Amino acid sequence: MTDYRIGVDIGGTFTDIVFLDDGGRVLTKKISSSVDNYAQAIVDGVTEVFADTGMGGEQILEVLHGTTVASNAILELKGARVGLIASKGFRDILEIRNLRMPKLYDLRWQKPAPLIERYLRLVVDERIDAGGNVQRPLERHDAERAVDRLTAEGVEAIAVCLINSYANPAHERLIAEVIAERAPDLPFCISYDVLPEIKEYERTSTTVVNTYVMPVVSKYLKTLRAGLDDRKIEAPLLLMQSNGGLTTGEEAGQKPVNIVESGPAAGVVGAHAVATRSGYRDVISFDMGGTTAKASLIENGAFTRTSEHSVGGGIMIGSRLLTGGGYLLKVPAIDLAEVGAGGGSIVWIDSGGSMQIGPESAGAYPGPLCYDLGGTEPTVTDASIILGYLNPEYLVGGELSLNAGRSRQVFADKIAQPLGLDLEYAAYGARQIAIANMIRAIKAISSERGRDPRGNTLFAFGGNGALFAAGMAHELGMKRIVVPPSAGLFSAFGLLYADVEHHYSRTIQRLLGAADPARLNEVWDELEETARRQLAADGFPPERMQFRRAADMHYKGQIYELTVAVPGGVLDQASLAALEEAFGEEHEHTYGHRAGADEPVELVNAQVVGQGIPEQARMPERLALERSRGAAPPPARDAYFGPEKGWLETPVVARPDLETQHHGPCIVEEYDTTCLVPPGATASLDGRGNIIVELG
Amino acid sequence: MTKIDDLISFEMFKNAIFSIADEMAVTICRTTYSGILRDNMDFATAIANAEGRLVAQGLTLPFHLGSMHTAIAAVMARYGDDIGAGDVFILNDPFAGGMHLPDIFIIKPVFADGQRIAFVLTTAHHGDVGGRVPGSNAADSTEIYQEGLRLPPLKLIEGGARNETLWTVIETNVRLPVRLFGDLRAQLAACEVAEKQFLEQVARYGTDTVKVYMAEVMDYAERLARAAVSELPDGEFSFEDWIDDDGVEFGKPIRLFVTVRKEGDRMSFDWTGSAKQVKGAINSTLSVTQAASYTALRSILPGTIPNNDGVFRVIDVTAPPGTITNVVLPGACAARALTGFRMLDCAFGALARMSPELVGAAGDGGNVGVSIGGYDKDRKPFIYVDFACGTWGGRPWADGLEGNTNLFINMASQSIEVTESEHPIEILAYELAGDRCGAGKYRGGAPFYRDYRLGEKDAVLQVRADRQVVRPYGLYGGKPGKPGSSHFNPETEDRKLPSKVTMDFHEGEVMRYVIAGGGGWGDALERDADLVLNDARNEIISVEAARLDYGVVIDAGTWAVDGAATDKLRDDMRTARGGAEAPFVSRED
Fold first, then answer.
1. pLDDT score of B138
2. Whether the predicted pLDDT of A466 surpasses 70
3. What is the pLDDT of residues A617-648, one digit of tens each?
4. Shortest CA distance to B356 belongs to which of B395, B391, B393?
5. For A190-207, what is the mean pLDDT?
6. SS3 at position A48
7. What confidence tens digit (pLDDT) does each residue in B449-487 have?
8. What residues contact A152, with CB distance under 8 A and at least 6 apart?
9. Domain A4-74+218-259 class, CATH top level
10. Half-sphere exposure of A3 (CA within 13 A, CB side)
11. Does A152 touch chain B (CB under 8 A)?
């Protein structure tokens, strides 16, 4: 009997389910996300596939899941009623945040509402100093008073974050003890367990978000587990974390703060796996859907992570500078830059007479003009129709029919005529401007980090990724594009490539030159031991565990840190000197300059990543390509390639046709995406079913 | 305007040029050594054309909006034709292109095809540039010569070679040269990044086209700004406000006065009528007065207008020399930020008169600056500089924000734990204070207070605060916010300190400051009773204040509004007013 692994990715409008059998055959299922009950949508989708194929629950080996349940709870403010216990004098750390606002000159700015109202934020009289010494001890009765008052208010969970607790968790532990004693069934989190790192706002926010979503995520995971059990699927349920590693359902229930960017991470993990298997080690992943485009850097075969991110607060260009929107989470996440540009983004003219794209989106409903569902504003997708890039009759293999005439009519009235441009030139312009906007996302993860995008391969997926990839690559001076199979539901696919991974960190602020190697070894060993225990609980024997160490460092006095790999094993003076040199090199690489040798380097955080290595390779070397669905499109249509090249007759082909190399212009139409190969480029298939576009 | 043949290429260029300015900012932000630079975002980046007109400014401080073209103009005035490839200029002199001494400008001309085609430049607030007080920020200096190292436009690098003499002079005159050089390095790196990327644009479009595009980017902004300004009501609108004092002559309020004139697609901000230049160091340069005026206007225009010379063309700023709004030698100006914030408040007051729905009541009046500096047991210097602000006035559509940066800047607070781990200072409290926000239909934001305790034997403490006498104004019937205050050892002797002070500070001593509460907007009796209840439950106001200021009767046992009692009380309060019309501005209860 054939065994299957399942990847399930919940998106805003669709839930994608991918089944992969041990022979590399892929089965996909796209269902509408039932917003009230995501877990039910998944179970229903799987049940339908079982009914269609005769598959049974016992054939499922693993269920891998990327979910928006945690991020939605935050975005919709539907988490638990939580109480917070803080240090006296610091009741409002959560609300004051770090003062910064994400937009300049914005008199209308509203701060995101604090996840815990002020009357549920209590303080206890205690003080620990920066060295971890107790200055004013916490009296037990004070902690009891605070806990009793919160339980009397009917809170559903308690978060605890005290000043300087990263240096000494004794008082937080005492409060934990009191909660466990006086409210034994109440979920709670202390900040030292969630994030034992310096910076009180970051730690408080992360702890509160974790506590806030914990009851929601736990309930969801329980419902999903029950639904799977009901279908006789006894396979383990693993969740994608924002950091790109999988974790168990139990651990995700305890640290839901780690699964907030679950879905976007899965796409990058897939991109990383598919690209590195094909021999591409320096890659920019480009995921473009209906409303947003996301980019991430894969460098020397490894993806890049950021140590903090925000949920909510909108999407903005330049967000790396103007922080302050949304809810801050200081947990490692795959470093994604996002801009509000997608197929549904609206094209408009501002009062200075300049064409603008987005960030407003027509969404899935009413959608672009061509959907003919009542949309009144031209979108990027309408521009693609006018240019002849998209099939003017229908999309998704005929399931969605289009009205190209409407795209042309309204685009001409609202954009081309007011600007005095020909229709096709205006549409071409809209595309170029959308590309210029999206380039800012790529620059944010490449050139703004001192990385030149030109040497990288562009890995394109999402519903619109392959349509825009060539234009993006051209502007950035990139030479090669890879479009994987099932590009339109690639995030679900990416789940199948991930491994179990746990990240731990702790603040160990001290000058590298003055650090005692013995003490550093102790800290890293402790972190590694924590990771080891978790992996053992996940069921990995010692020989299938792998650990990586890293350190966050900066020049003394700097505020941002850079992360540098730390060798495993015992550190000594020589390895610390090597670490200092590695930091200097990284600083130079990233920022183009480094300080003199006499400037002290400071260690800030120690990190350990523990990885569980699966018994056998999770993915077959090759995938069997799915046959294209739906009616075959006409063999060619006219497409417009800018004022110099004009309209060209452009062949329309299917992916398998690229077994023989094709020269651009040509269009590859598929069920879930369309790939544009411009004039001068070539397209072919590699041995793994990826489309490889080489730009001339 | 020269014809732009290729609208789309132009759009791509526009995107690229602002992206470069932002990338410069990222470079500075990520490599800076000083908390004030990164967290207060107290720096700016820009690209100007060959004539020094601002083409693009990065996403940094509004405060620096007027400064960039002023700095380049000073370089051009001094060096004329002697500006060559490989030169990098430095300056900080407020009387020759600068704003105040801690803001050091780094300016690099960019050449292509043998001609100057642009300038790339940055300015950044440095932690210390020497002078009589650590941090170089004292409010009570009385001449520029006390304030630190003064650099007119000079070549820091000439034809690619470092001017070692100048580097040595700088190194010798500042308290923490390693930190200053670290930040200078970041500024230089930002200019190099920008030059490289700018030249890529030149390679792509050609020198002549890039020149045309730069001109058009400015013209484009001008068109947007004119279109938006045209929609505002025409007329003349004045407003006045007072700064408590200059930190030297206490008890002597300083008048700010602005007249905004609007006709068609033009606007002017005329500061004639503002006080004469003062002894203390809060005099403003013309560039800061321009920035306050530009920012007031920008804040009521659509957010998508680029920041450049095109916007400046729409607005005239007049400030008579020798006044607090346009300092002349030898006036001190290190703490001119205070006046900048207050000029913005004053300009907003004039705009509120223009139309009620445009802007809100006054906030905390800008940040409180604290610097604590001295020498530790090993005679090693330490300097802690912190600025914090956080309260907005009520707005015609919503309450004033609390715990949010002033609009004139975009600062982030420094982490308490990082501060305590790096400096001999403890922060004992940082939280909101109750019953200090101005009542209104939309109330002012609640202010916060902060307590600092020194952990080293002794140090010099310097505080620059204001709005401790002249309260944040309320508008259209809203009440003013409560004044701010500073306290010495608040939990024991609680001695009140002047708003601006430089004093000795000893181990174990505590300084507290409370910022001013935001002013309210609109009649408090019209405030939704449930919002009043929320505020009371959250201890932003007391149950007593709910009754007295808002006419809302709350049962604190059940946290419910007594509807009938509230209606009656509000009716009685309205009757007691006797139908008097709500004042446009309120400064006292």
1. 81
2. yes
3. 777 777 776 655 556 777 899 999 998 899 99
4. B395
5. 96
6. helix
7. 999 999 999 999 999 999 999 999 999 999 999 999 999
8. none
9. alpha beta
10. 10
11. no
Distances (CA, A) of B565 to B38, B560, B575: 52, 12, 15
Q: Is B497 a member of any domain?
A: no
Scan residues 48-87 of B and list those with Cβ closer than 8 Å to A.
58-60, 62
Give domain limits for chain A: 4-74+218-259, 77-213, 265-499+633-696, 500-612
Q: CA–CA separation, A43 vs A295, rounded Å?
A: 31
Residues 406-435 of A with CB under 8 A from B: 419, 421, 425, 428-429, 432-433
Lowest mean pLDDT among A329-333, A592-596, B84-88: A592-596
Cβ–Cβ below 8 Å for A351 and B397? no
Q: Are A2 and A54 in contact (CB under 8 A)?
A: no
- The fold adopted by the segment(s) A77-213 is Rossmann fold (3.40.50)
CA A493 to chain centre: 15
| CB-based contact, A649 to chain B, within 8 Å | no
Q: Residue A241: which of A321, A169, A329, A161 has the closest Cα?
A: A329
Q: pLDDT tens, B390-407? A: 999 999 999 999 999 999
Interface check for B162 against chain A (CB to CB < 8 A): the answer is no
Q: Give B439's pLDDT tier (boundaries 50, 70, 90).
A: very high
Chain A residues within an 8 Å CB radius of B359: 107
Give the C-alpha separation, B64 to A532, whole Å.
Answer: 52
Number of other residues whose CB lies within 10 A of the CB of residue A446: 23
Q: Judge contact between B550 and B520, C-beta under 8 A.
A: no
> Do residue B431 and residue A355 have CB atoms under 8 angstroms apart?
no
Query: Tokens representing A186?
Result: 């109440």
- Please provide the CATH number assigned to the domain covering A500-612: 3.30.1490
A653 CA to centre of own chain:
32
- Total number of domains constituting chain B: 2
CA dihedral A24, A28, A34, A35 (to 10 degrees): 60
pLDDT given for residue A318 in this prediction:
42
Q: In terms of DSSP bridges, do strands A246-248 and A237-240 run parallel, antiparallel, or are they unpaired?
A: antiparallel
Between CA A430 and CA A434, with CA A432 as vertex, the angle to 5 degrees is 70
- Cross-chain CB nearest to B178 (options A321, A590, A599): A599
Q: For residues B569 and B553, what is the distance between their CA atoms, to the nearest angstrom?
A: 8
Q: How confident is the model at residue A317 (pLDDT cuts 50, 70, 90)?
A: very low
> CB of A100 within 8 Å of any CB in chain B?
yes
The residue that leads in pLDDT, B134 or A160, is A160
Residue that wins the pLDDT comparison between A33 and B506? B506
What is the pLDDT averaged over residues A23-45? 79
What percent of chain B is predicted at pLDDT more than 70?
A: 98
Given B200, B223, B246, the domain boundary residue is B223
Q: Which residues, 6 or more positions from B562, have their beta carbon under 8 angstroms from its beta carbon?
A: B553, B554, B555
Which chain B residue has the Cα nearest residue A425? B8
Q: Which domain holds residue B216?
A: 7-223
Boundary (domain end) residue, out of B162, B191, B223: B223
> Any idea which of A555-564, A659-668, B121-130 has the lowest mean pLDDT?
A555-564
Q: Across the interface, do B179 and A599 touch by the CB < 8 Å criterion?
A: no
Question: Is A104–B410 a contact, with Cβ atoms under 8 angstroms apart?
Answer: yes
Q: What is the pLDDT of residue B1?
A: 34
**ipTM at complex level:** 0.93
- State how far the alpha carbon of A578 is from the alpha carbons of A507, A585, A606, B56, in Å: 21, 11, 16, 42
What are the tens digits of pLDDT across the range B308-325?
A: 999 999 999 999 999 999
Instruction: Write the DSSP symbol of residue B82.
Output: -
**B7 touches A: beta carbon within 8 Å:** yes
CA–CA dist A605, A593 (Å, integer): 23
Q: Do B412 and A323 touch (CB under 8 A)?
A: yes
Q: Kindly state whether residue B521 falls inside one of the protein's structural domains.
A: no
